Amino acid sequence: MELDCEGCAGCCVDWRPLDPAAAGSDRTGPRPPLDDAYDLVPLTRDEVARFVDDGLADTLVPRLFEPAERDDSVRIDGTDLAAVDGRPVFVVGLRNPPKPVAPIGTDEPRWLDACVFLDPTTLQCRIHDTDRYPRTCASYPGHTLELGAETECERVEAAGGGDRLLDDAPPADLPAPAFGPQALGATVFAYPDPDDLDGVVARLRDGAGTAADRARFAGAAVGSRPGSLSVTRERMAEARECAREADSWVGRAIEAWTERAGADGDRVALDRDARDRLVRETEDDAGAPGTPGWSSEG
């Protein structure tokens, strides 16, 4: 598997406003997500715990699902949710605030939802090759190739984004997929107290989730035990409290970008120098780790 990612960011950006027909979907199963985030990255329990322990829980967001046919379900805030034994199932991913980016060969920056760790200037991941880099990102598009499905790389190519998927042989050392029989308690979690989610589900459904709402699910994920519905209550409570107190550069940058952004797909009314200066002020000066730049890569 060999990729050319320079100037692309197709799997890190919601580029549906640029080319709705070419952009695909990250729907990996029959259960529609409650949100409309594009390419949400499902994290493992250990990855969620690492972000929480590192004070970066304001990076995280839960995703709940509508039930598929014959699924167990639970109804909260007027919404039927996929469930296991009456407990709503969810994954935890990375937030996607609007950023001024120029991906996939666009001539000028647009306001597009993008991964919190995507540097809008270099179009590189700020945590690539670190212990925080998600397994899902590191293995993409290996599982997609293994299933014979269309990759984001191929969608970018079809939209005129150059040659991206240079070798379509999936790696031999792929980790277990995020969704499967082994996923319960490891990547797919079940919230143990559905009665506590009154109002929470409605806010998440409407895109108005609060830090406290997000912390609930981060705590439940950290407290989960792989392969079971069991949750260690003390560990869940500690992680939830730690998540609520998170105040990192990521959270501050999300607030700043959200306040500054135009509508989805709007052109950014700044020249290149002004945009780069805005990125430095919003992310780099706030504590964001840098990126090496494409010229330094082999």
What do these coordinates show?
- By secondary structure, this protein is an alpha+beta fold.
- It has helices spanning 45-53, 135-139, 142-146, 152-158, 200-205, 211-223, 233-244, 249-260, 272-284, and strands spanning 2-3, 60-64, 72-76, 79-84, 87-94, 98-101, 110-113, 165-167, 189-190.
- It has one domain (2-288).
- The strands form three sheets. Strands 2, 3, 4, 5 and 9 form a five-stranded antiparallel β-sheet that branches. Strands 1-8 form a two-stranded antiparallel sheet. The protein has a two-stranded antiparallel sheet with strand order 6-7.
- Strand 6 and strand 7 form a beta hairpin.
- Helix 1 crosses helix 6 (211-223) and helix 6 (211-223) runs antiparallel to helix 7.
- The longest helix is centred in the last third of the chain and has 13 residues, at 211-223.
- It starts with a strand and ends in a 14-residue tail after the last helix.
- The model has no long low-confidence stretch (mean pLDDT 90).
Core attributes:
single chain; 298 residues; alpha+beta; two-stranded antiparallel ribbon; 9 helices; globular; DUF7531
Instruction: Please tell me how large the radius of gyration is.
Output: 19 Å
* Large-scale geometry: globular
Indicate the low-confidence ranges by residue numbers: none
Count of helical regions: 9
- The average pLDDT value, as a whole number, equals 90
Write the H/E string, N to C.
EHEEEEEEHHHEEHHHHH
Number of strands: 9
Beta-strand percentage range = 5-15%
Largest sheet entry:
5 strands, antiparallel
Approximate helicity band: 25-40%
How many distinct folded domains? 1
Question: What separation lies between the terminal Cα atoms?
Answer: 15 Å
